[in-house]
Amino acid sequence: MKPFALERLFWGSDPWGFYGEIVFRSLVMYLVLLVLLRFLSKRALTQLSILEFGIVIVLGSAAGDPTFYKDIPLFHGILVLLVIVIVQRVYTYFLRHNETVETAMEGTPILMVLHGVIQKDALAEARLSQEELFQLLRCQGISQLGEVKAAYMEQSGQLSVFQRETPLPGLAIVPPWDLRQPVVTEQAVEQACVQCGKYQESPEDAVKATRRGQCVYCGHDGFTEAVQKGEPD
Questions:
Q1: For residue 167, is the peptide bond before it cis, meaning its omega torsion is within 30 degrees of 0?
Q2: Nearest-CA neighbor of 195 among 230, 228, 222?
Q3: Is 211 helix (H, G, I), strand (E, B) or coil?
Q4: Is the pTM of this model over 0.85?
Q5: Nearest to 138 by CA among 148, 128, 129, 124
Q6: Which of 70, 102, 197, 227 fits a disulfide with 145 by CB distance 3.0 to 4.6 angstroms?
């Protein structure tokens, strides 16, 4: 074999008539895939779970291979598509009718933020960094953690945010810390922990934090000014 042979790289050695067959194969697999996708749930076509994402990858491979591999008959690819769609339908049925299966396969929502405080171990459980959580919150219009009554990481990977009618002072996440790091200051009443966002909302909390040099919730020793409204630069 001659390396980097242009004819082999771009056109191959198949007769020209085979390229017409590729066009035909592609049209057939495309139409079959469209018909079968009609039978998947609408959720499977929008917010994908891990298993559903894997199914989409398998569907793409099964639909793609028969379009240009001359050794793979169209029927083989169509059979794979049918099996995958049937498995998906059965899977969706059990999700709707068996809570144990749903919990095992989809997981449960994770409480990320409660009353302006990032919950212990929530970031590790959701496999998020603090900055990634802040990014998701900013996309929901949150500028500081005191605005958040509760925030949940849903099974779909989306963040559901419930805002307080009257925000508390809290840890500013606007502007993004990549642009301006919060200034770490001495502990006082109007302070928020830079790790969990805990606002030292009572004189007792402030006294404890000052005496111990640590957040009363997570034990971190960094504090910054608690703000009522985060503002961009």
A1: no
A2: 222
A3: helix
A4: no
A5: 148
A6: 197
Q: Copy the structure tokens of residue 214.
A: 């640590």
pLDDT band per the 50, 70, 90 thresholds, residue 76? confident
Give 83-142 pLDDT, tens digit per residue. 878 877 887 788 788 888 777 777 789 999 999 999 999 999 988 899 999 999 999 999
What does the H/E/C string look like for 69-133?
CCCCCHHHHHHHHHHHHHHHHHHHHHHHHCHHHHHHHHCCCEEEEECCEECCCHHHHHCCCHHHH
Q: How far apart are CA 112 and CA 161, in angstroms?
A: 10
- CB contact set of 33 (below 8 Å; sequence gap of 6+): 59, 63, 81
Query: Which of the 8 DSSP states describes residue 226?
Result: -
How many residues are given for the chain? 233
> In sequence order, which residues have a C-beta less than 8 Å from that of residue 156 and are 6 or more positions away?
47, 48, 49
The distance between the two most distant Cα atoms of the chain, rounded to a whole number of Å, is: 84
Amino acid at 233: D
Please report how the helices 74-97 and 17-37 are oriented relative to each other, as an axis angle in degrees rounded to 10. 20
In the three-class reduction of DSSP (H, G, I as helix; E, B as strand; rest coil), residue 167 is classed as: coil
Backbone angles phi, psi at 91, to 5 degrees: -60, -45
**62 and 81 Cβ atoms separated by less than 8 Å:** yes
- Determine contact, residues 39/85, Cβ cutoff 8 Å: yes
Mean pLDDT score across all residues of the chain: 80
Side chain identity at 198, as an amino acid letter?
A: K
The tokens for 64 are 């793609």
Say if CB 150 and CB 113 are below 8 A apart.
yes
Return the residue matching tokens 């997981």. Answer: 107
Query: What would the two tokens of residue 107 be?
Result: 């997981």
